[in-house]
Each structure stands twice: as structure tokens, then as C-alpha cells.
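To: structure desk
From: M.T.
Subject: fold request, one chain
Message: Could you run this one when you get a chance? Sequence is below, nothing fancy, just the single chain.
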Amino acid sequence: MASLLSACICRSALSSHYRATARSLHVSAVAHRAKKSRKAAVDFDGDELFSSSSEPDELFPTTPSAAQATSTPAPASTITPATGSKKLDAATRAARFEELFTFVSSRIGRTPTVKDALQVRNTAWAHLFGLATEPAQLERVANIFSDWKESGRVFSDKHIEAFVRRCEELHCPELALRVFSDRPRYGLDLATPRAARRLLHALHQEHPLQESVTLAALCALYRLPPLTADPISCAMLTAACLRAAAPPATTSATPATSIVSTAAERRAARKVAEGLVPALKQVLEKTPPMPVPLPGRERAFEDVKERLWGKWALKKVERALARQGADVAWLRAWRESSGHVGKDERPLAVAA
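Reply: Done. C-alpha cells follow.
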């Protein structure tokens, strides 16, 4: 049911541009798998991406590889590694970004411009993401993703999730969507449900519904579980559809958004929402309660943040459905069992 619904959403709502992108992704899938099997083995510890930056060799190694050590001495690095332990002022941070970007971009690719014994560490990507303070910088980083793969290196799941998280923090999730929509150009795959969930969180409230629908299509193309199979993602996608289907705000009490939709777009969103609500009900019936810890250290954990996303998305879904006179008893019951309904939250009227 959920997979069929996701497929229907993709067929009905994708624009011609994203259909073309979908074809290119689909056609390149076989070649991508073949290429993956030929990649040089690269040992990568998942914790390396976020290891302490106090080690001077972490980003700019001065020791050549075993193959190079016998013939070419390594030149000393004159670049100071970026450190994450101290808060940098804007000028220093921009300079660090440029230094690291130049270091990385000149040493990767099929024919790197700088050929020496220095190797780019996997951790360099996390530091580039962190040093970027504006979308334009992050886009420059994305433009050299393909060079990394051409060097025989691979991106880990943590790389991908860190990129999506930084796109959200810099308010440019459309960049991540564009990167994942164009595999031939960027070479970065939407590889984990967590990355897809975070990207949906960044898109579903303040971006056109089309972008969330495109993400749903990409999940299918990358062979990820459909968004409708995940209670948190399904809640956010349903909330996005109901928001897009709502008539324009006419009162000053309602926050204005930058999204302007036509009557036809609202009708299309309403139709998609009508299919998503039963899917949401079905997935919640299979999902045990998901309580959210009280404010404290636990809220910093990623899975707790995701539960918060689901909590607020379900609240929005309930309110939107109640305004339409729909039966929301099933949704209120699940929210209450999860402890999502506050004591001061008034009961919502339901259809008789």
C-alpha cells in the first residue's frame, strides 16, 4: 500500500525536469554498481569523520603513503589545519575554508593539479562542511564531490548525512536535493533513510510541495524505503501536503510564508493528501508509541530530534484534518499514547 502510494505520488506530481533526472539516475544505476565493484579498497573508520581535530596530521598529512615513501619525500605542509575546538571569527573562518578547499580540490580528481605525497583525509569533508557559512561555499564543495570519486575514494554514510545536515543549517536544502537528483554530475548518493528524513524535515515546511514529492521519488530511485513506510517521514510529508492544500491565509494571526500556490496546485496537493492520510493511519497502527524525553541532554541525540519532528508534524496533521471535519480520533489516540498531547491542548472537534 505504502509503496504503491509513493509510486502514484511520483507519477502524478513530478515535473518533466525531474522525470529526466529520474531517467538519468535509473540508467546510471547499473554503471554505478559496476564502478563500485572496481573501486580501490579504502579503510574508513566511521568515527574518523568526527574525530578530534587537535591532531595536526588529521587534515593535512605530511607522511607519504607506503608506495610513495620509497621514492618521493613529502614536502612539509604550510597550511594550518582547521580546528573545531575554538570558535573562529568570520575572517579567520573564511580563510580556513579557502585554505582547506584549495588543498582538497587541487589534490583530487582524475588529473589533480598538485601531485605530491600529501593525501586528503576523509575528515577534510566534515571540516569543509563545518567551515562553510553560506550556501555558495557549500555549493563549491558539492562541485568537487565527483573529483573525490574519480580519485577512487568513497563517501561514507556519515559524509552524506553531514552534508544534508549542513544544508539544513545553512537553509539551502534545495542544494542537497539538486545534488541527489543529479548523480552523473555530483556522484553523491542518497544512501540512508536518516539522510532522507532530515532532508524532508528541511523541505516540508517552507519549500514548495514539489520538492518534498521529488525527494519521495528519489527514495525509490535509490532503493530506500518509501517515505510513507516511516512514521516520522510520512507525518512530515502528510503535513506538507495539507499545508499546500490549505487556502491562502486571510488573517494577520497566521504567519505568512514565501510559498504562493495556485488553485490547481492546491487541488493537486489535496488529492495527494487524501491518499497519504490512510497511509499515515496504517503506519501508526504498526508503530508503538514514541515518547519524547523532557528537555535535557537526551534531546541532543539524533533519534530524539527525529521524534520531535514527528510530534510536531502529527500535531499539524491533526489540526488540519480537524478543520476539514475529518475523524481524527485515531490520530489523537496515538498522540496521547506517545505523550505528545499537552495538558493545555484543547480537544479537537471531530466529525459525527
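Reply (cont.): Residues 315 and 335 are 8 Å apart (CA to CA). Let me know if you need anything else for the meeting.
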